[in-house]
Each structure stands twice: as C-alpha cells, then as structure tokens.
Amino acid sequence: MKRFRYKLITLAMVLSLTATFSCSEYLNAPLENQILADDTDYSQSQNMVLLLNGSYAKFYDFEWETYPLISVRGDDVNPAGDQQVLFDTDEYNYGRSFWIYNSTWLNFYSDIMYWNGAIEEIRKYQEAGASASNAEQYIAEIKVMKGYNMLQLARLWNDILIPLSSDPNDLYEVELTPFNDVMQYISDQMDEAIPNLPNIRPNQRTDITGGVTRYTALAVKALANLEMGNYQATAEATGTIIGSGEFMLEQDYYQLFKIPGKLNSENLLEFQYSDYGAESGTSEKFPWQVYGPQAVGWQPAVPESAGGWGFWEPTEKYIKFMLDRNDRKRLATTVLFTPDGISDIEADPDYADLPNWVTNVTPDGDTFGNAPRYKFLSGKHYLPTTQLTPGRFNYGENKNMIAIRYAEILLVHAEALVSGASSSVMSADEAVNAVRSRANLGTLSGVTLDDVLDEKFAEFGMEWGVRFFDLVRHGQTDDLSYEGRSYQEGDRFLPYPLDQVDILPQLQEASNQ
C-alpha cells in the first residue's frame, strides 16, 4: 500500500510539484525517482527528460492490492488467502469502508496528480528553450499513462473526477464526469498524443526501451471506445494497429509470460521490472508474491526459492471450460494445479479421466503441493525458479507485467466487427482464427459475439479483469452468477470509498442519490 492511504488531502504531502524524477538505465530497466532541488534551473534543458523518467517510475510503482481489485470479479478467478475484502468483492458484497477500495483509489489518483505536475514542469522547460518536439513527446507519453489509469478508475467506479492540475485542492472543485464522457475524454487525449509519439513498437524504442508509442495510445483509445459502445472507432483504432504489420503473436504462449517474453513483439503496454542481472543489490519488482504458493507443499526446482501469499486462484469453471475446448496450450500456461485441485476436477464424472499433461509439476520442474488457501494458482503470474537470476529467490523476481497484448487487439477488433462495425483490414473470422491458431485450435467461420467472448475468456484468463468487463459491457452477466454468487443489476461498479466521500462533496452528493 502506498503511504498516502487514507485521506485524499494527504496527497499534498507527496505531490509538492514534481519532487521526484531522475535518470536510470534505459535498457530493460525501470526508472527510479530522486528529489529535485526547489530552485530548478529550467535552462538546463537536458534535465527535462528526468520528468519523463520519473513518470514511468510512477507508472510501474504498482501496489499489490490494485491488480486484484481490478481483476477479482470475473468467473475466471477466485480470491484466496486471508483478505475478506477480496472475498466480499468477488461475491458482489461491496462496502464503502473497505480499505482496498480507498487504497486503490489513492494509488491511481496519486499517479494522475503526479503526472499533471510533470506536464506542468515540462512546459516550464519548454518555455525556457527546451526542444518543443521532445516536450510534446514526453507529454504525449504521460497522457497515455494517465489515460490507462483513468480507464481502470472508471471501470471500477463509473463516474469519476478528472483532475486537470497537480494541486490536490483542485479536486474539491472538479465535477464528477459521467462514465461515457470519461471514455470520450480518454479517446480525445489519445488523439492529441498520437501524432507526437514514436511510430514503432515499444520494444523498438532505443531511448526508453518498452516505453509508450503511437500503438500504445491507439490501444488505449480502442479500449475506451469499446467501453462506450463506439464500435466503429474501436475497429478503426485496432485496424490501424493490425494494418501496421508491426506486431505478431508470440507462438510460445508459455514463455510469453516468463523472462523470454519480456519486451516481446506481442506487447503494446508492459510494466517493466529488473534485478539488473545481479545476485544482490537493487531490484525493482512487481508484487508477484501475492500470487505465489504457500510454503507448505512448495517444492521449487531451485532450492531456497521463495513462495508467496496464495491470494489468487483460477476457478474450476474456467478449468472445465478450457478442458471442454481441448485448449491445452493456454490451460497449461494459465493454471497451476495441486494434487487436491486435480482430485476435485476428477470428482466430477464428466472429468474423471484427465489427460496426463494435467499435473502439479511445471515443465520447469517446480512442484505445487496442497495448501490450505487454494486448489490452483495462476500460471501467468508464475516465473519458473530456473529463470530467476542466480542468487535471487523472491517469487517472480525480474518478471515484467504485461498490460495490453496484440492478442487483445485482434479480439477487440473482432468484438467491434460482430457488434456492427466494419473494417477493410481484417475480418472477425480472421482475427479470431489468428488467436486460435496460436492455441493450436481449429478455425471458425461466421463468428458471433459469443464466439468472440469465449475466445477472450480462454485467452485472457487471470488477466486484468477482461472477462468481467466483457460480460457486463454486453449485458451477459448470467455467467457471473456461479458457485453460489448472485450478480444483480447495479453490481457493475464499486461504491466510492468512504474516506473519499467524507472529504469530497461531489462524491458525497453522488452517494446520497
């Protein structure tokens, strides 16, 4: 959790206008923060890039609770562990006082306010004579980061605040922006950013490897328009990405989510982390321990390799769905089995004879034994211990977190087309079959919305709440009532955090309606 957890006003303590930016290694290495002196010399134009570096560092500074809250409500995943807040949320029992809601809200808004400050400072460098083209590119990159955060905020809370400055006090004066207007704002911001961004894949950038490019902005624009039901704009944005010919599906689906998949040509947005290839010292890492196995039953191929908290569990519903499709390649990557989990599946007469590739030992020799908290774990959040840097033992250390993949662009393109859009770039059949081919599945013809949603279910299990957002967007919420859950109209969005309602009158008014 970030240090500014409880009251939004505490942001003032950490947002004293671009107080943290610095250089670092660019090649596959995250960007670190340092404090600038108050008497910044804006004539030193070479320092303007430090604001961009710090903005990326802020973007990658993920707190552990944020991703689970975004992702927990789909029928692909169950919470595990000891966080009752996540169990309640997964069952659509929401509470304004849940600490994870407030913390996630602050995690996102602190980033947005920080980026507003970075943009303000970049403008000062520009006014003092720094390169206008560099300034516009840096601002465009930051706009994409902001757009991505706002997309997640609105998906969670519906109508949200859009702060336009770095001063937290300005939030008191900002009106709530309706959901569709937020999405339109994001789309417009991406349109402003696109002309100023590099026209290459993120992994082709040589200044900030893996950084935001024009295609990242197009992807965020497509997702925002998808949420609005603006399918033609979605098809056009995804069509531009597809038509560029720059991206490709990684054929080794298993390794895509491992060290060999870092900065892959499938990835349009990727949170980057590194241990710098050293056995000790600085290591920037995503909180992978949330998804790791408990010590009991954990037998890593590399002795001393640590496990984790056991907070994340694929559902039996997802597993059976994949077995029914004979979707071996993706299931074997997405789900880590325990002996108890295998036994539970086999207890169903329809699955009594599981294929021999369903095992609790991974291809890299890590063994997942029985544990009190879970029957299964997420393979997309797993790094083989044989891929850890020698001398490093933290679960998943040095692994990146992929946020937007080309597979999603293809399937979102298909989703837009079966929902009424047109495209001369690729048909819905072609887009779906490209993804199915990678999974070693047969081709489909005349694909429907149900076919597309099924393919997205299979492809994005455990990833970013894609399944939940797909179902609620298309009103196909019956699938969210499973294993005792009962999804009701009105369960799509979370209530505003009580701590924020107490201090922001706009939220209080909206909560009382």
Question: How does this structure look, described?
Answer:
- The protein is mainly alpha-helical and 513 residues long.
- The chain has 19 helices and 10 strands.
- It has helices at 11-14, 48-60, 66-71, 84-90, 99-127, 132-157, 179-193, 214-228, 231-244, 253-256, 316-324, 328-334, 339-346, 406-418, 428-438, 449-459, 466-473, 498-501, 505-512; strands spanning 77-79, 160-161, 176-177, 267-271, 298-299, 312-314, 335-337, 367-368, 376-378, 401-405.
- The chain has a two-stranded antiparallel sheet with strand order 1-6.
- The longest helix is centred in the first third of the chain and has 29 residues, at 99-127.
- Keywords: Cell outer membrane, Membrane, Signal.
- This is RagB/SusD family nutrient uptake outer membrane protein.
- It comes from Echinicola strongylocentroti.
- Residues 1-24 form the signal peptide.
